[in-house]
Write a structure and sequence with these properties.
Number of helices: 15
Helix content: 10-25%
Radius of gyration: 26 Å
GO molecular function, one term: nucleic acid binding
Organism: Flexivirga oryzae
Strand content: 15-25%
Number of domains: 4
Domain Exonuclease: 18-183
Region (Disordered): 301-330
Shape: globular
InterPro entries: BRCT_dom_sf, Ribonucl_H, RNaseH-like_sf, RNaseH_sf, TerD
CATH superfamily of the largest domain: Ribonuclease H-like superfamily/Ribonuclease H
Strand order of the largest sheet: 14-23-22-16-20-19
Distance between the termini: 63 Å
């Protein structure tokens, strides 16, 4: 039995999904090592009506962890069911529905891991994160914590960190989010999660503290910093070989590339690694030969650590994030409605020259709009008028009189702003700014109204020679996590991709390079601008950039994160190319079968 619907019909028609709103409390932060303590699930229909509601404590079969956060003691857990005892019921509540949670990847990963332990199939294939949805709206908030978002929408929280109360609040936040997305004509950022079954996390790759000295030549000694790859059966356990190599100062890689110093193989010639080694002319040693050379390894040249203070005192200078803050559009975020690609491109350039910032989608932060040819046929134009935004003349970029002022009050789409002055760094193409040594969440967005196929967002972890060390340093659709922890990608989301970057996992001379490519025969002229939204783990907005590529360009370097003068730095790039992703990858040293020549 469901309650009456609370959302307008147009919302249900725009998003004809059923939802399972979920929250879990856990013993810690690792889905692979920690356990679920409490779970709450509430089912919602497309019109926001309540269906089944259920919650339970769960016996984690271990210590409950940080009781000061979740308040769940061992005494409260006495007699609670194990996850395996309730797995079927939980999965029945979730099956066939969009999985909704705040920081949804966290809850989804925990429940997926619990399902693995219970030898059960986790039946969730679509996920909606209220953190990401609120970020997409660009709500005027100091952060994207659940409590802050609840306060914006006027939703009460009686017992934060209690799964049942958090789900009750999340139901209300979800309703507001659905209504607001419909009002703005935005698509929901629903993702299709990368399955955890059969995809265990890769052990982090240890950063090698020695500079890469080049490839090994037969008859020469090994030198610290050389890269080694193992293939085939070995007399000594592979794990021990890797530990020995790392302790001796070698960089252990998982695949062979043109930069691999040597391959260790006991006569195995048919593996892909051996084939690549022969292709690149890489030195191939037996295990015995390798271990003899390892015992007499020569010292290498130490890399500079990003946390090592410079030898002489320096003055840290934060780069200027924007060249022009005093123009007539300073403080405005402007959206362009309608227009041909070249017309929209040139208008965005003039907006930036006038001190404004550009938006690719209609969001809460947009303050002005420029109507170009054909704007009347764009559904967003009515919303621009309903929102009483400033309308600018397309030639002069001066305000024009609107035909009407809307007096409509949208109770479900109107919140309470909590910040009045933004401290976000607005970066132009080529702009740089220093950031804290803390994880960065970089969301890459494009227009929801663009008639184009897929946009592939990828990441390269590059050395001081601007090349990958091996193919593990190329993160893309089928290889989303870097083994050293520098970056992992969240893909398969409508209208956006997310790169989670950890500057602390980067060496002093390496960098993470983000890039995008249009799938098929598409070009950026059909897509329009790309937007970069950089936030902290708590959702504090740090950096914003809007980047254009030329009409016929098919790939673009978006941004780089690297160390400079003891501080992580973020650079917005915006450099486009006519070649596609495969050529871009080859240019950065990725080995691709039947690949084109480097250009």
């Amino acid at each position: 039995m469901s309650s009456p619907g609370v959302l307008p019909r147009e919302v249900a028609e725009a998003f004809p999904f059923s939802y399972a709103v979920v929250d879990v409390e856990t013993t810690g932060l690792s889905p692979d090592n920690d356990r679920v303590l409490q779970i709450a699930v509430t089912q919602l229909t497309a019109d926001g009506a309540l269906e089944k509601q259920w919650t339970t404590l769960v016996d984690p079969e271990r210590d409950p962890g940080p009781v000061h956060i979740h308040g769940i003691t061992a005494a409260r857990l006495r007699g609670a069911p194990r996850y395996a005892d309730v797995a079927d019921h939980i999965h029945e509540l979730i099956n066939g529905r969009v999985f909704v949670a705040h920081n949804a990847r966290f809850d989804w990963d925990f429940l997926s891991s619990e399902a693995d332990r219970a030898a059960a199939h986790f039946p969730s294939h679509q996920r909606l994160c209220t953190w990401q949805t609120s970020a997409m709206f660009d709500l005027p908030l100091p952060n994207l914590k659940l409590g802050t978002i609840c306060q914006y929408w006027g939703v009460s929280q009686a017992r934060p960190h209690d799964a049942a109360d958090d789900v009750r609040a999340l139901v209300e936040v979800t309703r507001h989010s659905l209504a607001y997305a419909s009002f703005l004509h935005l698509q929901l950022p629903i993702s299709r999660p990368w399955p955890r079954n059969g995809y265990p996390p890769t052990a982090p790759r240890a950063n090698c503290p020695w500079k890469y000295p080049g490839r090994h030549t037969t008859g020469e000694s090994l030198r610290q910093g050389m890269t080694v790859v193992f293939t085939g059966p070995t007399a000594v356990d592979r794990t021990l070989l890797i530990e020995e190599a790392t302790e001796a100062g070698l960089a252990v890689m998982n695949s062979v590339s043109s930069r691999t110093s040597l391959l260790v193989s006991n006569g195995t010639t048919t593996t892909r690694k051996a084939e690549r080694a022969r292709l690149h002319g890489t030195s191939i040693l037996t295990e015995a030969q390798y271990r003899r050379l390892l015992s007499a390894i020569q010292p290498g040249v130490a890399k500079q650590s990003p946390t090592t203070p410079p030898a002489a005192p320096t003055v840290k200078r934060t780069p200027k994030p924007t060249p022009n803050r005093g123009g007539p559009l300073a403080g405005h975020r402007v959206i362009i409605i309608g227009g041909a690609p070249d017309e929209a491109h040139s208008t965005r350039d003039r907006i930036v020259e006038s001190g404004g910032a550009c938006a690719v989608n209609l969001t809460a932060s947009v303050t002005a709009a420029v109507p170009l040819s054909g704007h009347q046929t764009d559904q967003r134009w009515a919303r621009v008028q309903d929102s009483n935004l400033l309308v600018l003349d397309q030639r002069s970029l001066q305000p024009v009189e609107q035909g009407h002022q809307s007096t409509v009050v949208h109770s479900l789409t109107t919140g309470t702003p909590m910040v009045t002055e933004s401290e976000v760094a607005e970066l132009p193409r080529g702009g740089v700014t220093d950031v804290e040594d803390a994880p960065l969440i970089v969301t890459v967005r494009w227009s929801h109204s663009a008639a184009i196929g897929d946009v592939d967002v990828v990441a390269f972890v590059l050395g001081d020679d601007e090349l990958v060390g091996d193919d593990d340093d190329f993160c893309f659709y089928n290889q989303r996590e870097h083994p050293g922890g520098a970056v992992d990608l969240e893909l398969d989301t409508i209208g956006q991709a997310v790169a989670n970057i950890r500057p602390s996992a980067l060496e002093a001379t390496s960098r993470v390079m983000l890039a995008a490519s249009i799938d098929g025969d598409g070009v950026f002229g059909q897509l329009g601008a790309i937007e970069l939204d950089v936030r902290s783990l708590d959702g504090v907005s740090l950096i914003h950039a809007t980047l254009d590529a030329a009409d016929q360009e098919a790939s673009m370097l978006l941004a780089a994160v690297y160390w400079r003068n003891g501080s992580p730095r973020f650079r917005a790039i915006g450099q486009g190319y006519q070649h596609r992703l495969e050529t871009l990858a080859v240019n950065f040293g990725v080995d691709i079968e039947d690949s084109p020549t480097r250009v």
